[in-house]
Specification:
The protein has 10 helices and no strands. The chain has 272 residues and is an all-alpha fold. Helix 2 packs antiparallel against helix 3 and helix 7 packs antiparallel against helix 9.
Length: 272
């Protein structure tokens, strides 16, 4: 195990990420109840032996609904991040390796997009595309692309002047060989670390869109939508909001701490 993951922060992040990923993988199969079946006689109950985390306004088991919603929430965070990181990395590598007027034009466009806060940018895109899980994921990916492009470009610029890159150029290697074999593999570290941390932001933004009715739609068990549907009953049973809210917090915290530990393992000087 890398040294950074032996710290309390690294172990906590690894532990939380493992729980979230396991819940996303097997949650729907181990849920004790059907998450969509109403039980009016047990509505808004607190934790008990029958319902470990209580029930919601329709008597549905909260533990079952959280477990059933884990795949959608985690898939949203990972999918939006992969799309944003992939698109941003391609743009950043092109800008960093090409240079000249191509780099200037790309960076001026990215600077304009980065001037808009990511959440506001996402809301604008979702409003244009319409509500829904797929549209929300695409909107988050587009909002992540400018920041990832700048990070990828910075990594490429710091690497393309290294000795091994200059040696490959002196040997007469083609530009595609230098980019794919020398530059890109050595630039992946910062991109992977930033992508891991951005999963946390993607999960929180996805939950925000679900809460606002612009992301997942009923009868989905996505955690942000669960908070939105139950918020008017929180004074009668706080568990209906606390359970999905804590699930979002744990998932985001886990990926954030995991990304920090991963960054420290790749850059020990920063960790020290």
């Amino acid at each position: 195990m890398p040294e950074a993951f032996r710290s309390a922060t690294g172990l906590t992040g690894l532990f939380l990420v493992t729980i979230v990923l396991v819940a996303a993988a097997i949650g729907p199969f181990i849920a004790p109840y059907d998450p969509q079946v109403f039980h009016p006689q047990t509505r808004l109950e607190g934790p008990s032996l029958a319902h470990l985390l209580g029930t919601d306004q329709f008597g549905r088991d909260l533990l079952s609904r959280v477990l059933n919603g884990a795949p959608a929430t985690v898939a949203f965070g990972l999918g939006a991040t992969l799309l944003g990181v992939g698109a941003g990395s391609i743009i950043g590598v092109i800008a960093g390796t090409t240079g000249g007027w191509v780099d200037s034009i790309i960076m001026r466009v990215l600077d304009g997009l980065l001037a808009v806060p990511e959440l506001l940018f996402t809301l604008l895109i979702v409003t244009f595309l319409g509500g829904g899980m797929g549209q929300a994921m695409l909107a988050v990916a587009v909002a992540f692309t400018p920041g990832m492009a700048r990070i990828a470009r910075s990594s490429v610029l710091s690497i393309r002047t290294r000795e091994y890159v200059m040696a490959a150029t002196a040997r007469g290697k083609s530009s595609s060989y230098i980019v794919l074999r020398e530059v890109l593999p050595n630039a992946l570290g910062p991109i992977i670390v930033e992508g891991t941390i951005r999963v946390a932001f993607a999960i929180m933004i996805g939950a925000t869109l679900g809460f606002l009715g612009l992301g997942a739609q009923p009868p989905s068990t996505e955690w942000g939508l669960m908070v939105a549907e139950a918020r008017q009953y929180m004074f009668r049973n706080p568990w209906v909001v606390a359970v999905p809210g804590l699930a979002i917090a744990f998932a985001a915290m886990g990926f954030n701490l995991f990304g920090d530990a991963l960054r420290d393992s790749l850059d020990p000087r920063r960790g020290n």
